[in-house]
């Protein structure tokens, strides 16, 4: 039987790519983690996932899931791996489905008393309507990541194009209260809540171009970690992030996105069950600022160890 910690005897299949809209980002995360695990002296191989039934190397003892968005983050891959009795990193099928669906997770946040922006669901299956919510508001597809299809709408003239773009991803559109404030994110690994990252786009909001300028050829963002917040606000933000993580039942790790208004009130946007994992991504930035700090390879090892401790006994002997 496989042990409950990664060592040189465990074959680690680093799953990257995937069939969704975040494929290129996933490939970047996967390559970074693969290199880090190999540098740690572990037996890791890369697997470029191009369909929904990927072939894993014989004897795989851990699937390190780096597939962002559709298939990797929505519970489908988790179901597939459980059918193969192969342990995998991160959230399980149910918590993945819940966190990936912004409508379902919002309902869970409300039920658990987690602070979140007011929202409504717009069904555009019978034609494009208009939200009842007053401007400004944010429209987003409820089941996409990396700000795909997200628009801040401040005027009626902007609404039509924003809603049309969000509708490309499904007949439901999530419309949220616009919270004007600081963009923050909080990493959680095991029981540890990492220092807060303050995200400051140099223009616009934190969209795909500002998140991944190496993909778009434009956009730029500054990051500050730990965020320059007073101790009470820091604790309130971290407590809200941990409450969101627990409300969704997320296993092993996540990264929770938060808006902080001018009065110091945090609003949870979403919990990412497979956050970006390049050496310069936000979860690794937060881990490096923790006390004690985690180098990138040590963070990858920690995620793997926690995942094997949770699921390793289900692996084939």
Explain this structure.
The chain has 317 residues and is of the alpha+beta class. The chain has three domains: 11-90 and 296-314, Rossmann fold (3-Layer(aba) Sandwich), CATH 3.40.50.20; 98-115 and 180-289, ATP-grasp fold, B domain (D-amino Acid Aminotransferase, Chain A, domain 1, 2-Layer Sandwich); 119-177, ATP-grasp fold, A domain (Dna Ligase, domain 1). It is built from ten helices and twelve strands. It has helices spanning 23-39, 76-83, 93-100, 102-112, 156-167, 208-211, 213-216, 231-247, 282-289, 296-311, and strands spanning 11-17, 43-49, 60-65, 119-123, 137-140, 151-153, 172-177, 181-189, 192-201, 221-224, 253-261, 266-272. Strands 10-9-8-11-12 form a five-stranded antiparallel beta sheet. A four-stranded antiparallel beta sheet has the order 4-7-5-6, with helices on one face. β8 and β9 form a beta hairpin. α1 (23-39) crosses α10 (296-311). The longest helix is centred in the N-terminal third of the chain and has 17 residues, at 23-39. The radius of gyration is 19 Å and the shape is globular. The N and C termini lie close together (4 Å).
